[in-house]
Q: What sequence folds into this?
């Protein structure tokens, strides 16, 4: 798909369509929240959902105060420096608290609204990975760091004319780094942040009682998990189409295909995960199938606006096979306790989608541009978020104490459980 120039101004029909899509997109956030809560334990479910609402609120305020100005919009003022005869645009220079918002074009206003939703979803991902032991206060400060520092940097580099977007102009690498609907800015950032959180807080007590072994801690509510995946699908279709309009400048004639590619990627991933888990365990695994479905949606965020339907099925099949196997490797071989599967679903899924976008894009050297972007994410963004989280952990401990894990995060932090009419038994691992 060749990226056409942005039509300015929006036609009335395109304005209405984009607004409607962005009003539907929060269903993706709601679906991920429900899925994460279901994948955790019953005695932490209320804390998990309250954390999502709180993180959404804090990230929105933090992004409005500082992040939106640092992210900037395409064509707005920015901080630049000269090196090797090239201009490197590295940070937005917009005013704080959205003082310039009314003066922006409708496209730029929608772009900022898209980013408000994107930063909230990115902050949900490490929160889910730290389930059952991550304190609510820690989730709040993590969301502030992501909304005010890490996300604005990436959003500016990729969406607001920053140096990654300019790889095509400066180095003739395709159309520059492509991220159609937040694969890098949301899912890679969120997945790498989840990895950093897991490294800092460690596994849940009793998860790895002896070296080389792992205790099964299954999702407490498969219905929440599967229904969350269905809700997320509705929002994801709107999200991908809105992203294609804003960042790929897709015409109306291309939008139906983007929706179809989103569906095909998720469907192929689900069927692949279903098959893999049935072969490995004798029966399909519901929570892993939900993770496979979500991983297919993540892949579509990178390439639904670029690939053909056949290519969308291929990308979905690949991640559907990889997801359950990677979850198993991370847990059994690397002793990484990731209840929500954030690393396999969001980090690995988005990185594969970004690679696939480079493989299938018609622009020459686009694959190299995608590799530069991925190297930046792994070599710069991961160390940055880990360092920031490590410093924060010295001030506000991320992990709950032993009593909190034993009682459950609901009783420990909220004083009541999500399911008060049921008896929540203590795990055998605590005996």
A:
């Amino acid at each position: 798909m060749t990226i056409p120039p942005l039509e300015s101004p929006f036609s009335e029909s395109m304005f209405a369509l984009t607004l409607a899509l962005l009003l539907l997109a929060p269903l993706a956030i709601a679906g991920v929240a429900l899925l994460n809560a279901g994948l955790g334990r019953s005695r932490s479910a209320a804390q998990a959902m309250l954390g999502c609402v709180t993180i959404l609120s804090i990230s929105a305020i933090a992004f409005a105060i500082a992040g939106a100005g640092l992210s900037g919009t395409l064509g707005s003022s920015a901080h630049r420096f000269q090196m090797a005869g090239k201009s490197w645009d590295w940070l937005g220079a917009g005013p704080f608290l959205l003082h310039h918002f009314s003066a922006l074009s409708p496209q730029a206003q929608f772009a900022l609204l898209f980013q408000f939703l994107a930063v909230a979803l990115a902050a949900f991902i490490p929160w889910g990975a730290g389930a059952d032991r991550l304190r609510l206060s820690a989730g709040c400060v993590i969301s502030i760091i992501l909304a005010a520092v890490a996300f604005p940097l990436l959003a500016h580099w990729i969406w607001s004319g920053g140096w990654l977007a300019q790889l095509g102009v400066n180095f003739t690498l395709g159309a520059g780094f492509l991220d159609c609907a937040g694969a890098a800015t949301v899912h890679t950032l969120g997945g790498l942040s989840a990895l950093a959180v897991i490294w800092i807080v460690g596994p849940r007590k009793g998860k790895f009682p002896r070296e080389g072994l792992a205790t099964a801690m299954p999702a407490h509510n498969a219905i929440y998990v599967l229904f969350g995946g269905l809700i997320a699908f509705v929002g994801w279709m709107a999200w991908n189409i809105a992203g294609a309009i804003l960042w790929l400048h897709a015409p109306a004639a291309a939008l139906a295909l983007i929706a179809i590619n989103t569906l095909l990627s998720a469907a192929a991933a689900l069927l692949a995960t279903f098959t893999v888990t049935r072969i490995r365990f004798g029966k399909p695994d519901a929570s892993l199938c939900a993770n496979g479905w979500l991983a297919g949606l993540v892949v579509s965020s990178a390439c639904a606006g670029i690939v053909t339907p056949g290519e969308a099925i291929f990308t979905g099949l690949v991640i559907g096979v990889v997801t359950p196997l990677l979850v198993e490797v991370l847990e059994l071989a690397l002793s990484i306790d990731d209840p929500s599967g954030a690393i396999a679903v969001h980090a690995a899924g988005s990185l594969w989608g970004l690679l696939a976008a480079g493989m299938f894009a018609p622009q020459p050297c686009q694959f190299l541009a995608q590799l530069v972007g991925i190297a930046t994410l792994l070599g710069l963004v991961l160390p940055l978020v880990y360092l920031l989280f490590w410093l924060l952990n010295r001030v506000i401990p991320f992990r709950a104490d032993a009593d909190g894990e034993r009682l459950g995060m609901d009783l420990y932090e909220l004083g009541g459980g999500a399911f008060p009419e049921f008896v929540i038994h203590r795990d055998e691992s605590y005996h």
